[in-house]
Design goal:
The structure is a homotetramer. By secondary structure, the first copy, chain A, is an alpha/beta fold. The first copy, chain A, has 15 helices and 15 strands. In chain A, helix 1 packs antiparallel against helix 2, helix 9 packs across helix 15 and helix 10 runs parallel beside helix 13. At the A-B interface, strand 9, strand 10, strand 11, strand 12 and strand 15 of A face strand 9, strand 10, strand 11, strand 12 and strand 15 of B. Chains A, B, C, D: Its main location: cytoplasm.
Amino acid sequence: MCLLFRLYFLARRMHLSWVKSALVLWRNIMIKVGIAGITGYTGEELIRCLYQHPKVKISSLYARIEKPIHFSSIAPRFNKKIDLMCEPLNAEHMGDNCDIVFLALPHTVSMEFVPFLLKKGKRVIDLSADYRIPKDSYELWYKHEHTDSENLTQAVYGLPEINREKIKGAKLLSNPGCYPTSIILGLAPISKLISQCLIEPIIDSKSGTSGAGKKAEASFLFTEVDENLRCYKANEHQHIPEIEHFLSYEAGANIKVHFSPHLLPVRRGIMSTIYLNHESFSSIENIQKMYNDFYKNEPFVRVRPLGKFPEILDVAETNYCDIGIKFARGMLIIVSVIDNLLKGASGQAVQNMNIMCGFDEKEGLF
Amino acid sequence: MCLLFRLYFLARRMHLSWVKSALVLWRNIMIKVGIAGITGYTGEELIRCLYQHPKVKISSLYARIEKPIHFSSIAPRFNKKIDLMCEPLNAEHMGDNCDIVFLALPHTVSMEFVPFLLKKGKRVIDLSADYRIPKDSYELWYKHEHTDSENLTQAVYGLPEINREKIKGAKLLSNPGCYPTSIILGLAPISKLISQCLIEPIIDSKSGTSGAGKKAEASFLFTEVDENLRCYKANEHQHIPEIEHFLSYEAGANIKVHFSPHLLPVRRGIMSTIYLNHESFSSIENIQKMYNDFYKNEPFVRVRPLGKFPEILDVAETNYCDIGIKFARGMLIIVSVIDNLLKGASGQAVQNMNIMCGFDEKEGLF
Amino acid sequence: MCLLFRLYFLARRMHLSWVKSALVLWRNIMIKVGIAGITGYTGEELIRCLYQHPKVKISSLYARIEKPIHFSSIAPRFNKKIDLMCEPLNAEHMGDNCDIVFLALPHTVSMEFVPFLLKKGKRVIDLSADYRIPKDSYELWYKHEHTDSENLTQAVYGLPEINREKIKGAKLLSNPGCYPTSIILGLAPISKLISQCLIEPIIDSKSGTSGAGKKAEASFLFTEVDENLRCYKANEHQHIPEIEHFLSYEAGANIKVHFSPHLLPVRRGIMSTIYLNHESFSSIENIQKMYNDFYKNEPFVRVRPLGKFPEILDVAETNYCDIGIKFARGMLIIVSVIDNLLKGASGQAVQNMNIMCGFDEKEGLF
Amino acid sequence: MCLLFRLYFLARRMHLSWVKSALVLWRNIMIKVGIAGITGYTGEELIRCLYQHPKVKISSLYARIEKPIHFSSIAPRFNKKIDLMCEPLNAEHMGDNCDIVFLALPHTVSMEFVPFLLKKGKRVIDLSADYRIPKDSYELWYKHEHTDSENLTQAVYGLPEINREKIKGAKLLSNPGCYPTSIILGLAPISKLISQCLIEPIIDSKSGTSGAGKKAEASFLFTEVDENLRCYKANEHQHIPEIEHFLSYEAGANIKVHFSPHLLPVRRGIMSTIYLNHESFSSIENIQKMYNDFYKNEPFVRVRPLGKFPEILDVAETNYCDIGIKFARGMLIIVSVIDNLLKGASGQAVQNMNIMCGFDEKEGLF
């Protein structure tokens, strides 16, 4: 099977569509995926998506545990669906059992596994921040040495709307951060305009708590978060370099942003409210058209009619990014919403896998 | 008693402190207050504050009802505390039974009662928007004719931190809006700087649902608000003229702001995150000092140490406005939080009453 | 197509498996379903399930509106998925355009449409209470005359775990209530024991707010529900006769229950905590075994190990009913949880459709 | 001052009302209270109540810290109110600086401090479980040796509604648990009836999360609690012996209860829904009258009219216990609600202090 899988990738890269077709038709081909980090929220969400995926077989699960343990005792909500052991994190086991490995691990842990897996010829989809931004930027913002610069330069940033072609051939896919996904998608259609006019967008983001992961910290207790709102890391969040790097990449020129996140009392969802203030904007209808055109063929981005904003519940439990724009009193306001666990993490990872494997991009997603 | 009350006010205005003292000492003096609109959230909160106030007797309650009804059947949570009938809205009844009337009524309803009450010599504290901004501004933003321009020009805007002296002699006090309170307090110490540098602050506010009142609308149902976030009336909310009017008043020059509110899934509380971007800022320590100095003697404003932001739960169920400022990557960020029902409405109304009556400003408040 | 569909049903009823197989194989067969009442929460959830269903084509949508309106303007969260007009409720239009009609309408409205649709030979899946319980019981508890007693006696109660065989041949399927689903499934395995021992189970249920529908009532506002808990209709809720009727049906003898629901500050989910107190219980291991055996082959019921209780989040966004049982201090305690919009309404309706049409029972469901 | 305080207590015990009066009139008498455990929710709530109390001076604060630290840096929400250092837990410091010490410490920690403080002649109000129930019961249910059996037998259980006379003279007051408060108050008026009829009440309680304290455990994270409901320790919670002990004490005969708590997604509040099933109940009007009579003169218990149930929001942020009773289909149902941090902990502790000191029982409470 593993051989078949490699043949398939080879055929795709060489545009041997007849081989590809033959392989796809051969009924037995199911990609074997492994998921590392299944005790976290993104790991669990990956299982939900991949379990429904008709071309995928979840072959193994990994977590930071000492001994193998049956998955049902970790996550009873998957009983009668997933009947697998969860294994301790182990690169060799991953290499022996998976065609593609999803790493839903904390930052700095992913880079311990990537080199080995790539050497084994596996495809890796990394949901951590380890392979998103250049080494110097990473070390500055994440305050940790990067020990795998070789693969870092090879990694493909997995935001399909601006990088689909490169994703098709990716061996190491670096899945975008949640805030950056909502913000880059909210600004990509006008990135050139922003850089030309030297505008510095002001971004006020609000995120649900699942973005903080499942670690036991008093500040994320229900009693501390419920009925509350908290502004944190204002204009110094580690997602800033990622946002600026890929917006600049899309614009072909440097863009600087101001980004301040807030912790919302909701479980999932991100809203980014983006403010752009400049006298030289072309007509607002023009800008609306730029958004409509940019996302016309995108399966997972929806642009609202001019002046209408989406809400978090419009995209919760889906892989969509919904965007609305409005012009009022000289200010261009853009609202972009995603489900932080889906389009902001696991859903996008599956979308990337679909692109990498030549599957329908919407498979396994809602 | 009513006579005494007038004598008291007269003495205060004429600075006859000995008469005032004599009157205050006379044990029996308790101001009789009436509250109109007690079925709404602000009306109920007024009762909570005034019930605890040692100088006040709640003498009558009013609501938009047909026939008198016992208050306990409307609000069982005041049983064993308040044993009063609730009367239909009736200006004459108010005039006969109260020294001060709090109007917690919807916009456009207040102005039906104010002229009569003032003519009767009563003090009025109006929580609606009817007497906050000039007639033309009101009619433009509230889309309703203003039928009491005479008293509108006499009304005193009740934000103690910028208007305390005028409040002392107010007959008609116009209590500020919830968003404007959080925003004006967040910017007042640097209002001159803002106008001089021609900065247009960008304000991203987030409010709990009690600000929307108790009207039965599908968009405020629990199922529609919970786990959601909604940006509404972006840069076209009717509080904009109030914010600009009084910030400009404080600065002595015109100030323009950009203001976009969001509906949070919390019951009470407002956070305003304010962004100011300008190269000519003096040192951030200087700005912090301006805040510390401006609010040094204020009983209900607290400034955090530089770089620390307050959260909504820091002020929930209190009359405080907490403010934090931070400078990062060229951007000045100010976070201002209040409880929308207290400092943003009923608490501030009681603070204003305390100032008008010469009581300790903190009486009845926490 | 319609003809094909009838042939298919005929074949199934006559056990002509070869005809059935031939028809199924014929690639074009896709059942055309219509959904009436799509502005409510159950209507929307039906669309979510059926949109993902490989054997179904959503052919038409209906709501209580005056004129046709594009569905995207009602529910932007289905943009790029559903591109349909929503029509006013109209029995003839339903009859002309659908093979199966789902009625997600309020009680008493369904029975206006059912007679016509059945006469037209359509299958109807009714999510209201109109066809669940006998006429006299209905009129007593729902305080409304039942005008379609003829079809009422023909309707099949759609709780697959106790009625699967009858569901296969149903023309009019009456989908169970949300509370009854959680409770009947929680007690069915020991229903005989309950009736023999004359136990009257005490049931304390807690439901999310989506169960109350989208009607604008002040008591369901966020500000009234959040941070609150409310016990309502204690031991006099209209679901009592449904629970008793079908538990008795399953036991073959009369069972009386005590049922008190509470309104939880969550959007979706029901937990029923059930107390049974009787000295004559056989061993608890025996009872656990009765549950395990009863649900062994059920795709959507999961029994926890003895002493372990499920939580609402274990089943939210799924069609599962999870059940845990425990024995402590002489009391048998059963906890049963469902998502009220899925297993408690739309998910179960789709499960029933799958059974009626001979599809895989899990199709379209998670 | 300390001497004065002892004189005052002595005078009260000896019914020397003239001494008492003289002392009270002497303006300077203010009781010095210390609060140990101020980083927890109950500690903070004690500060809120005592800060407003006209007869009390908060003289010192203690927490499990290494070095003294200014309280404002722990709890900025008390800035401009409390200007005190917080000291490490230290019995001698408490003894030197306080007339009364409130211990808001975890179970097993309180008993390290009580013996010393009592020896020093201080009054102690202990909010932990350490002095509530007999030694054998404590050691069985709390699984920890009790090292202070001497004082345990002297401790007075501080539920004023059943124990007011003893509380007046208490030196060591043991403040009731939150669940027991809601349940004992819900059943006390009919405790004799319950014991006579051998009824075993079934109690389904639901509590907000602040009851679990501020410890960082993953199961209390917002993402794990929000939109969820969890039944835990069903019929084996450590509050069972406390409930049975004091209900039996009130009835004068043994009472057994069945008690199962649930964790609600709200910050504060407890609802206990209590089921009693017995044919021999006297008329329901009789029972309602028993409740009305029992609580007629109680300042903090309110009985609703027959058939009306209170909600959590009716008592949130107050010291009330609201109770409603209803009879339906042969079942007596009682709903009792409290704020777990006030009547369920800190508010009741202050109520007890008021009784112990001869103050108005409502002082400092709302």
